[in-house]
Each structure stands twice: as C-alpha cells, then as structure tokens.
Specification:
Blueprint (H helix, E strand, L loop, with lengths): L1 H21 L24 E2 L4 E5 L9 E10 L3 E7 L5 E6 L3 E4 L3 E2 L4 E5 L11 E12 L7 E6 L4 E2 L2
Parallel strand pairs: 1-11
Antiparallel strand pairs: 2-8, 3-6, 3-7, 3-9, 4-5, 9-10
Length: about 160
C-alpha cells in the first residue's frame, strides 16, 4: 500500500518538474508599465473657483482605441485619524478619513486627447485644507469573460475655493 502511495505522489512531482523546465522556453516577457498618459499638470498650489474651466489633456500616442475614463477626486490634505486597527503584522495602523468625494465624468474617446471641465465643489471640499486631482484610466485589454486590464494615472493636486 505504501509503495503505490509513493508512486501516486511521484507523478505530480514529475509533472511539476517538467512544467518548470518548459517555462524558460516560453519566452515570457515582463509587462512594462506605460508612462502616464495624462499630461495636464496644474501649477503647485493652484487654486480655482467654482465655474472656472480647466482642460485635462492626455496623449493618445501608443494607447489602444476606446475611451478615457476621468474622475475628479477631493480629500483632506491631512486626513483625520478615526481609530486604529491591527495590521497583518499585529501592529496598530490608523484608520484615516479624508472626508472626500469623487465626480465621475462621461467617458471621452481617447483620440479626442482632452476634456474641458467646469470646476464644481465636490463633497463640500473647499479651501487649502482640501486637495483635488484628476484621475484618468483606460482599458488595455478587453476580456469578454471578465478580467479586463487597465492603466491609470493622475494629475498633481490643486485646490478649490468657494
């Protein structure tokens, strides 16, 4: 009985060894992250008023077809600590509240390379204690069964005053 169990355990080991030897011949290449497509950068400490217009731009060079999905997000520069939880290593980790929000804009065809947004207050976030940024993302691979791949990046921060 023990001998047949040993044979049964040896089979998966041989299969795994064969698979490991085949991997180098598969010529797998690591995925190289693309540079940030969003090219708009706001001046450091820039402050805008509701109703001002800003243009968010990106480069379509090297991007797949489809849409650029954009959001404008706001949050406290210095978050509020609302409590503590134990991290995976047992240490106490603060729970942070940024008191922020987001506005999701309509998708824009990537080839348009820009979108003009009229500044609005997001989640009552006004003043220097709050920061805003634009985030853009696009799909690099569609999979009908799910598991699409995407890339994203953000602008630098700006402020909105009421």
């Amino acid at each position: 009985m023990a001998l047949s169990s040993m044979k049964m355990l040896a089979l998966p080991t041989l299969l795994l060894a064969g698979a490991a030897q085949a991997l180098p011949s598969m010529n797998l290449k690591p995925r190289v992250p693309q540079p940030c497509a969003v090219t708009t950068m706001f001046p450091d400490g820039a402050t805008y008023k509701p109703g001002d217009k800003i243009t968010i731009e990106w480069s379509a060079d090297g991007l797949p077809g489809g849409d650029m999905h954009l959001s404008l997000q706001s949050g406290l520069v210095t978050p509020i600590i609302t409590g503590y939880v134990r991290g995976w290593n047992g240490q106490l980790v603060p729970t942070l509240d940024f008191k922020g929000g987001a506005v999701f804009l309509d998708p824009v065809p990537i080839e348009n390379e820009k979108l003009e947004w009229t500044i609005e207050v997001v989640a009552n976030s006004t003043g220097d204690e709050y920061q805003y940024y634009a985030n853009g993302w696009y799909y690099t691979h569609y999979n009908p069964a799910g598991g699409d791949s995407s890339e994203s990046c953000s602008t630098n921060n700006f402020h909105v005053s009421a």
